């Protein structure tokens, strides 16, 4: 499946089969000798009585992730397709960070309650900075990098740029991931604000590299930019990523809602 080009191998393990180990995740994710994907998603029997199903997330390098916005929409679409979740009513899915409410937006796209952004440095975690700031500065790669930081259940840094096509994604992304400032590494977004309701974004993801879209990264970008007054998240922001658009807004409780595509591509059997 994919959500705006962020692609997944989805394993339905609700019959109790074991979750894949990191070696199997890396083999599945290999774009030349496996299936190829950014993340592996496993659907499992619900661990929470209020959820239709639980799920877990592995990055292409075999590391475990706590949050995946595009993956959450794909899980929701999978559960509706097989009749486990209602096609029109609301329901909940259980991620590694807890329950996400799933609704449909005005266009019929899956909308996920992604929770409230967490800006406190220890909660991100961001090391070496006292107190929450709109912008942090770090000496990196021979210069000073200015970035925002937030947790959407997983860690994100956001660098605002004038031209996202020219952003040093493949240079600064890995440098910041290896920096002492992010002890659990980080997803690094590069955002260009076009208008209060529209931004462009590229994300260098933890455990993968640059992807065509990152749902939690889109939420993180809007959260950081809204805090600086650069976008109007209460009225909604379209985030244009290389693989397509996501729609992000703050709901009346200060939580972030995200909607976008969830696409089935093919089904198969793994023979190794
Ligand atoms: N692509 C995802 C995020 C997947 C996890 C991330 N790479 C991490 O390690 O935190 C999304 O759509 O949110």
Automatic annotation (TrEMBL):
It is found in: Cytoplasm. PROSITE patterns: DAP_EPIMERASE (PS01326). GO terms for molecular function: diaminopimelate epimerase activity. Keywords: Amino-acid biosynthesis, Cytoplasm, Isomerase, Lysine biosynthesis. Its EC number is 5.1.1.7. The active site is at 68 (proton donor), 68, 214 (proton acceptor). The record marks 266 as: Important for dimerization. Pathway: Amino-acid biosynthesis; L-lysine biosynthesis via DAP pathway; DL-2,6-diaminopimelate from LL-2,6-diaminopimelate: step 1/1. GO terms for biological process: lysine biosynthetic process via diaminopimelate. It is an enzyme of class 5 (isomerase). InterPro entries: DAP_epimerase_AS, DAP_epimerase_DapF. The record marks 156, 205 as: Could be important to modulate the pK values of the two catalytic cysteine residues. Substrate binds at residues 6, 39, 59, 69-70, 154, 187, 205-206, 215-216. Coiled coil: none annotated. Its main location: cytoplasm. Homodimer. Catalyzes the stereoinversion of LL-2,6-diaminopimelate (L,L-DAP) to meso-diaminopimelate (meso-DAP), a precursor of L-lysine and an essential component of the bacterial peptidoglycan. Belongs to the diaminopimelate epimerase family. This is Diaminopimelate epimerase. It comes from Pseudoluteimonas lycopersici. The lineage of its organism: Bacteria, Pseudomonadati, Pseudomonadota, Gammaproteobacteria, Lysobacterales. The gene is dapF.
